[in-house]
Amino acid sequence: MAVNLTKEELKQYDGKDGHKAYVAIDGTIYDVTDVDAWKNGEHHGNVAGKDLSEIIMTAPHKKSVLAKLPVVGKLV
């Protein structure tokens, strides 16, 4: 079931205190909860619950990792 979340609603999915860890890239929301590199909602200084569209382009992997992630919905 796809969901639509605003940036404000996305903040709830920070991977802390039992919350799911979601990140938005180019309007699509991905679930990084079960990704070891995103333990506790943090990955190389970035935090879940945010739109990381610009930041992902500075990562060595760029968007190549997105195909492996479950899509949750859309950022509205």
UniProtKB/TrEMBL annotation:
Q: Which InterPro entries does the UniProt entry name for this protein?
A: Cyt_B5-like_heme/steroid-bd (IPR001199), Cyt_B5-like_heme/steroid_sf (IPR036400)
Q: What are the Cytochrome b5 heme-binding domain coordinates in residue numbering? A: 5-76
SUPFAM superfamilies reported for this sequence: Cytochrome b5-like heme/steroid binding domain
Kindly list any coiled-coil regions of this protein.
none
Task: Write the signal peptide boundaries.
Answer: none
Official protein name in the record: Cytochrome B5
> From what organism does this protein derive?
Secundilactobacillus pentosiphilus
